[in-house]
Write a structure and sequence with these properties.
- The chain is α/β, with parallel strands linked by helices.
- It has 2 domains: about 5-265 and about 465-480, Aldehyde Dehydrogenase, Chain A, domain 1 (3-Layer(aba) Sandwich); about 270-445, Aldehyde Dehydrogenase, Chain A, domain 2, CATH 3.40.309.10.
- The protein is built from 14 helices and 26 strands.
- It has helices at about 50-70, 75-90, 90-100, 105-130, 170-185, 195-210, 225-230, 245-255, 280-290, 305-320, 340-355, 405-415, 425-435, 470-475, and strands at about 15-20, 20-25, 30-35, 40-45, 135-140, 150-155, 160-165, 185-190, 215-220, 240-245, 260-265, 270, 300-305, 360, 365-370, 370, 375-380, 395-400, 415, 420-425, 440-445, 455-460, 460, 465, 465-470, 480-485.
- Strands 14-17-18-13-12-20-21 form a 7-stranded mixed β-sheet, with helices on both faces.
- Helix 5 (about 170-185) links the parallel strand 7 (about 160-165) and strand 8.
- The longest helix has 26 residues, at about 105-130.
- The termini are far apart.
- The relative contact order is 0.13.
- Its EC number is 1.2.1.9.
- It holds the Pfam family Aldedh.
- It is an enzyme of class 1 (oxidoreductase).
- Keywords: Oxidoreductase.
- Belongs to the aldehyde dehydrogenase family.
Length: about 500
C-alpha cells in the first residue's frame, strides 16, 4: 500500500486533478480548502481548476469515448473487476479521508468503500448481461406489412457523462454513476463535492491503477461558483447524473435536451398505524432518523403517528435517543458533527421555529460548533417549518394524526417525495397505505434506505428525475439504435 496514493498529491500537499490519464496541477495556482466538520479547520486542499482546464478534460473524454465504446463488453467488465479489487486492497486511506472530510464514523466510512467496490463488481456482471441483449423485429408483425424488413435494435452509449455525487456518500454515489456509465461505453467526467473531494480523488486512483485507458475517466475539482454552471452546460456533455439538493433544480432548467438522472432532497415520512409493532417501529425510527446524524436523503424526517399509540411510541423512541453516542467520527459515534456551520445553523433554525410554535422537545437542545445532540420533537404541527422542510441533521419531528388518511394527505402534500415507510401488522393495510403514498419508494415495516444497490431507486416531484439502481442506471446511460435490413425478396408473400 506504501506509495499507492503518492502521485495524487503535489509537492505542496495539494491534491491534483485527473485528466487524460495524468494527475495534474491547475495553472490557476489556487486551491480550495476542505474543512474538518469537527474542528472547522482546514485538513486538505484540492485544485481550483479553470474553465480552460474543464475544456481540456471534456475534450479528452470526448476523444477517448469512441475507442472505449469499441472495447468489448467483457473487457470493460474486466477493468471494473480490477478496480473493485484495488479499491478494497487500498480502502483505509479512502475511509480516513471520509472521516476527516465529512465526519462519517470510522466503521461506516470503511463500509462505504467496501460497498462501493461491491457495486462496481455487480455492475460489471449485470452490464455484460443487460448490454449484451439486442432485439430483432420482423416487419410482418405490423398489420398490412409483409416479411420484407428485419429491424435490429441495439444499445449504444450516450457519449460523455458528467457525474456529480453529494458530500454524504462521495464514494458510493460516485461509483453508482461511474460504473454504469463506463460499462455502457461512455466516458466520464466527475466533479466531486468539495467536502468529499479527497475521498473521491482516492477512488479515481483505483481506476488509474487498474489501467483504465486515458480519457475514459477524468476528475475536476474547484469552486462551484467558478466552474459549476460551466460544467453542467458544457457543449460536450451528453448526460448528467447528479445527486444533491436544490442545485439539481437549477441544473434541470439549464441542461436543455441532455439526458438527466437526478436524486434530490427527501422529506421521508414514517406512518405508524394503530396496530404497528411499536418496538420494531421505534428501533427503525432510531436507525432511519439518526444514523450518520440524519445526513441522508433516505433518513426518517417526519413521523406521522396515530394518536392512540403516540404517547407510547414517543416514550420508547425518546429513551433510545437518550442512549445514542455523541462525539467524534473516529470513535464510531452515531451522532457526529454535521457537515458545516451553515448546515448546523439551518437545523437550529428549524428546531427553534418548532419550539417557538409549541412543539415539545423530548431532549434539551444542545449544540457545540457543528455538533448537534440528537433531539426528538413531539406535537409538531403543519404550521411549523419542520413539518415540511428537510433538516438533514439529527432531528426527528413527530406529528400526531387522527386517521391514516390524514397521514397520507400530509405525505402527498409535500413537494419532496423520495422515500417513506409504513408500520402495520396488517399487510393488506400496509399495502393500501403504500399504494396511496405518492413517493418514490415505500418500505413496509422497515426504515427508508437506499439499497441494496441493484434495487430501483427514484424520487417523485422535486425529489428527482428518472430511476437509479444498477440496471436502471445502465438503461439510462444508453440510447437505442436500430438498423433495418431491407430484403430483396420477401421471405414469403401474403396471398
Amino acid at each position: 500500500m506504501t506509495g499507492f496514493y503518492d502521485e495524487i498529491k503535489a509537492s505542496s500537499g495539494m491534491y491534483k486533478f485527473y485528466s487524460n490519464g495524468e494527475w495534474m496541477e491547475s495553472t490557476s495556482g489556487k486551491g480550495v480548502s476542505i474543512l474538518n466538520p469537527a474542528s472547522n479547520e482546514s485538513v486538505y486542499q484540492v485544485q481550483a481548476c479553470t474553465q480552460k482546464e474543464v475544456d481540456s478534460v471534456f475534450e479528452a473524454a470526448k476523444k477517448a469515448q469512441k475507442a472505449w465504446a469499441r472495447t468489448p463488453l467483457w473487457k470493460r467488465a474486466e477493468y471494473l473487476h480490477k478496480v473493485d479489487g484495488i479499491m478494497k486492497d487500498n480502502a483505509q486511506p479512502m475511509a480516513d479521508a471520509l472521516m476527516n472530510e465529512v465526519a462519517k464514523g470510522a466503521k461506516d466510512s470503511l463500509t462505504e468503500v467496501i460497498r462501493s467496490g461491491d457495486l462496481i463488481a455487480y455492475t460489471a456482471e449485470e452490464g455484460v448481461r443487460y448490454l449484451g441483449e439486442g432485439m430483432l423485429l420482423n416487419s410482418d408483425s405490423f398489420p398490412g406489412q409483409d416479411r420484407s424488413k428485419l429491424c435490429m435494435a441495439s444499445k449504444v452509449p450516450l457519449g460523455v457523462v458528467l457525474c456529480i455525487p453529494p458530500f454524504n456518500y462521495p464514494v458510493n454515489l460516485a461509483v453508482s454513476k461511474i460504473a454504469p456509465a463506463l460499462m455502457a461505453g461512455n466516458t466520464v467526467v466527475i466533479k466531486p463535492p468539495t467536502q468529499g473531494a479527497v475521498a473521491a480523488t482516492h477512488m479515481v486512483q483505483a481506476f488509474h491503477k487498474a489501467g483504465v485507458p486515458p480519457g475514459v475517466i477524468n476528475l475536476v475539482t474547484g469552486r462551484g461558483s467558478e466552474i459549476g454552471d460551466y460544467l453542467t452546460t458544457h457543449a460536450l456533455v451528453n448526460c448528467i447524473s447528479f445527486t444533491g439538493g436544490d442545485t439539481g433544480l437549477s441544473i434541470c432548467k439549464k441542461a436543455g435536451m441532455v439526458p438527466i438522472q437526478m436524486e434530490l432532497g427527501g422529506k421521508d415520512v414514517c406512518i405508524v398505524c394503530e396496530d404497528a409493532d411499536l418496538e420494531l417501529t421505534a428501533k427503525n425510527i432510531i436507525k432511519g432518523g439518526f444514523s450518520y446524524s440524519g445526513q441522508r436523503c433516505t433518513a426518517v424526517k417526519l413521523v406521522l403517528v396515530l394518536e392512540s399509540v403516540a404517547d407510547k411510541l414517543v416514550s420508547m423512541v425518546s429513551k433510545q435517543v437518550d442512549g445514542l453516542s455523541v462525539g467524534k467520527p473516529e470513535d464510531n459515534c452515531t451522532i457526529t458533527p454535521v457537515i458545516s456551520k451553515s448546515s448546523a445553523d439551518f437545523i437550529e433554525g428549524l428546531v427553534k421555529d418548532a419550539e417557538a410554535k409549541g412543539a415539545k422537545l423530548m431532549q434539551k437542545y444542545r449544540r457545540e460548533g457543528n455538533l448537534i445532540w440528537p433531539v426528538l420533537l413531539d406535537h409538531v404541527t403543519p404550521e411549523m417549518r419542520l413539518a415540511w422542510e428537510e433538516p438533514f441533521g439529527p432531528v426527528v419531528p413527530v406529528v400526531r394524526v387522527k386517521t391514516v388518511e390524514e397521514a397520507i394527505d400530509h405525505c402527498n402534500a409535500n413537494n419532496l417525495a423520495l422515500q417513506g415507510c409504513v408500520f402495520s401488522r396488517d399487510i393488506d393495510q400496509a399495502i393500501r397505505v403504500s399504494d396511496a403514498m405518492e413517493t418514490g419508494t415505500v418500505q413496509i415495516n422497515g426504515a427508508p434506505a437506499r439499497g441494496p444497490d441493484h434495487f430501483p431507486f427514484q424520487g417523485f416531484r422535486d425529489s428527482g428525475i428518472g430511476s437509479q439502481g444498477i440496471k436502471n442506471s445502465l438503461a439510462m446511460m444508453v440510447k437505442t439504435k436500430t438498423t433495418v435490413l431491407n430484403l430483396k425478396t420477401p421471405s414469403y408473400t401474403l396471398g
